[in-house]
């Protein structure tokens, strides 16, 4: 069976990254880690909620992670948004509209399902109000989205 998995290039901290990510997501585990004779990790795998990531310790990169590739985490509610935002942003940096970069420079989108619902509201005015509210946020706050949508009807 053919499978497609993201493969991430780390300078020399794949094992640290795998441990970091698997500590945040439920149903996550570190898979096989291929080690060099000196014990350093050369390559390996980790699984986050059913998605297998491959990684290599390739040494200093000439090209770094950019927002051109990101991972989107769809959240049931504000508590999940807060958990993933706080955990992934630890040592990283916040951006806008639910985006952040983690401590390894990888970009993530932390998005509540309520945002999708409000953006597709049958009322164009409500959808527009929710969109404008989202554009002014770093972390997405569901109550603020709903308040913006409700303010116009």
Largest sheet: 4 strands, mixed
Q: Helicity level, as a percent range?
A: 25-40%
Please tell me the overall pLDDT. Answer: 96
The unreliable regions are none
Approximately what portion of the residues adopt beta-strand conformation? 25-35%
User: What strand line-up does the widest sheet have?
Assistant: 1-4-3-2
Distance between the termini: 50 Å
Got a strand count? 8
Work out the helix count: 5
Order of helices and strands: EHEEEEHEEEHHH
> Shape from CA axes?
elongated
For the CA atoms, what is the radius of gyration? 18 Å
Structural class: alpha/beta
Describe the overall structure.
- This protein has about 150 residues and is an alpha/beta fold.
- About 35% of the residues lie in helices and about 30% in strands.
- The chain has helices at about 15-20, 80-90, 115-120, 125-135, 140-150, and strands at about 5-10, 30-35, 40-50, 50-55, 70-75, 95, 100, 105-110.
- α4 (about 125-135) packs across α5.
Record keyword descriptors for this entry.
153 residues; alpha/beta; four-stranded mixed beta sheet; elongated
What topology emerges from the helices and strands here?
Blueprint: E1 7-10, H1 14-22, E2 28-35, E3 41-48, E4 51-57, E5 70-75, H2 78-89, E6 93-94, E7 99-101, E8 107-112, H3 113-119, H4 124-135, H5 142-151
Parallel strand pairs: 1-4, 5-8
Antiparallel strand pairs: 2-3, 3-4, 6-7, 7-8
Helix pairs in contact: 4-5
Please sum up the structure shown.
The protein is built from five helices and eight strands, in the order E-H-E-E-E-E-H-E-E-E-H-H-H. The chain is α/β, with parallel strands linked by helices and 153 residues long.
